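Inputs:
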Amino acid sequence: MSKTWWKVLGAILVLYSTVGGLLIGVPRLAILNETIRNLYFHVPMWFAMITLFSISVFYSIMFLLKGEDSYDTKAVESVNVGVVFSILGLITGSFWAKFTWGQFWSFDVKQNFSAIAILLYFAYLILRNAIDEEQKRAKISAIYNIFAFPMMVVLIMVLPRLSDSLHPGNGGNPGFNSYDLDSRMRAVLYPAFIGWSIIGFWIYTIRFRIRSIETIANTPDYGEVKGVRDRFVTNENQSTTNENKQQHN
Amino acid sequence: MQLAKEVKYLIHKEVLLEWRSKYTINGVLLYVVSTIFTCYLSFVSLGDKLTWNALFWIIMLFASINGVSKSFLQETKGQQLYSYILASPAAVLISKMVYNVLLMLVLTTLALGFYILVFGTYNDTDLLMYYLAIILGAISFSTVFTMVSAIASKAGNGGMLMAILSFPIIIPVLILLIRLAKNAVDGLQWDTSYDEISMLVAVNVVTVATALLLFPYLWRE
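Outputs:
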């Protein structure tokens, strides 16, 4: 139970922000009208994406320092999940844009730069496919991942602020901070940030465990090759096997 | 002190090698000239400043990808091993970057001269500021492409990976450069472009710093 509380918390927060986001009152504004509720679903996607990409960079750095295979698996799986969240962010943004700006894709700087940032991570995944040797692939892709991360931050956070954009918070448009001063919106938005980040992290841990099991299954005679299996067994599993042993004794 | 000595020696080696064969500089120069001439034959005259500026940067982007990517992709495994034994990774990277910056400065200056000769310039263009944009462009293209070409060369198949890996990284820099250059073409005041200039310098500092931190891991194999 002590290890599942954050999963429960994430599920509750996402459920709350979904129901609350649709039901709790919002400020009534021209043009935006009820589409302002998209804030609860669009922005948390980017928040979860940034969280997952940061985790990926962290494990890429750890891989370069320690050189363990499991760090590489963690880095690539968090990128996989992060890319899904970024695509969801683009889609929710496009739908909102259809109702407020009039088009799904109006070649706004914010839209273009987010699309390029996603290309950056597609390039990372293609780079991984291009190299056959596992250790080499892990090292080179870790280096590219760390090298690309600052550029992603520049693309998503810095450049849109320098230029005119239709997006709220850019180019003279007021950000949503000026709308949710009545704190009803904040009460939903911040839990949504945390909830979706936790859900993203949860999906990533499941993806990592699936990939680890596949790696163990594909390693021939893993029982004899000492150390290969141990690298992928998490502490959680190790402690349970120890407990089982003690019970048997 | 040791590092500075190694860097100096390696840059000398690069320049000497280039001076003996003159392959890269002549090759890229011919590439630029023929591209500009092809553009001239198809456009005849460029209608507005926006196209004038954008066309120049697109030509420069492809020319510099061709020029800079040679730095690591061209070297054989034996050459890389030789410099690995002789010099520290930081010295190798810095020397390549500095050499590429020098190469790109020469190339872009000549290219701009030819471009102006063919397409002419506009009356209110601030050429000094445009040249600053070109210097910043040469530096940023060199630093980013040098590191990416090192990654691509270690990954094996060079040409296509180089393009895939470098374009998403260079686009933010390119957008800043085009914006700065557009200010120059329009002849705006210098203080309107301080944002772009400082951002470009910051991006370059970050690029060089991360490249210096990461390159030793890449170089070791």
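Remarks. The helical segments of chain A are 5-23, 39-66, 69-100, 109-130, 134-162, 184-218, 228-232, 235-248. Chain A has a mean pLDDT of 82.
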